[in-house]
Specification:
Order of helices and strands: HHH
Number of domains: 1
Low-confidence stretches: none
Radius of gyration: 14 Å
Mean pLDDT: 88
Number of helices: 3
Largest sheet: none
Number of strands: 0
Length: 74
């Protein structure tokens, strides 16, 4: 089975929360993913350039995090 696209995940989040709240929640989760990624890179001694997630990966993690919370609240 194919994984849902970012657009499909966002549509599910919007269905749970409404558009404005969904955008805010995903934005906050995305910012948290960026901070966690940067802190992890600062703490690591060897260079992690090959292991560094792209911004697309971080967005996907943020979307999945918000969707998981929405589905827990059902």
């Amino acid at each position: 089975m194919q994984e849902p696209s970012n657009r499909e995940i966002m549509q599910r989040i919007v269905a749970h929360l409404g558009k404005d709240v969904a955008i805010r929640m995903v934005n906050e989760a995305y910012n948290a993913e960026i901070l966690a990624n940067r802190l992890g890179r600062m703490e690591a001694k060897p260079p992690l350039s090959k292991m560094t997630p792209t911004s697309h990966d971080l967005l996907r993690l943020a979307l999945e995090r918000v969707l998981d919370v929405c589905e827990l609240a059902k």
